[in-house]
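Escalated from tier 1: magnesium ion holo job.
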Amino acid sequence: MGVRTLTIRENILAANREKAESIRQLLDSRRILMVNIMSSPGSGKTSLIMQTINRLRDKYRIAVIEGDVASSIDTDKIIRQNVPAVQINTGGGCHLHAQMIKQALDKLDLDGIDLIFIENVGNLICTADFDLGAHKNAVILSIPEGDDKPFKYPVMFVEADVVLVNKVDVMPHFDFKLDGFPAIIGGLNPSARVFTISAKTGEGIDDWVSWIEATLTRT
Ligand code: MG
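Tier 2 regenerated the structure:
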């Protein structure tokens, strides 16, 4: 029974990877950069996306794919900014998978789009296992969550291209040791970039936006 369960899971992940690869090929043919943003619920994924849209919307055409267990609250926020967005509701599922992204892409008019953000379901565990066809993975960890989370949920941080430490504006109220944090990430994932930001006040967002723009020029 255990072996069979393992095999089914491997088959699911292999089929997902294949779908993800075909998505990347589609995006590459259109020179679109897709970035998958992951974090716990409430860490600031939507706020980061909104800040990024505000800084880049005059230079690039942006679209958003929103993943949540239920509701279209985040998609409604994005659409109010006149940015195209598609909501995926997983109906209880704790992560997005590549087929969901393909269906969302089919609903977007990709002509002229330069950059797509995926806001994954709020979760530090199962979202990390599923390749969505994105080119880059960004993980947000917010100050109130604590600096020990990379040790407790390592897969997420090992696979990240970027780690954003958000809510730096509330630093004085928490014990997050910011000075030692880049070394923690460096120990798990030496190539990850670490940015310290406040998606609320805009502090540090310029560095992240510069990274996005540098990545876009290579797409
Ligand atoms: Mg959100």
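Strands lie at 33-38, 62-68, 85-89, 115-119, 136-142, 162-166, 193-196.
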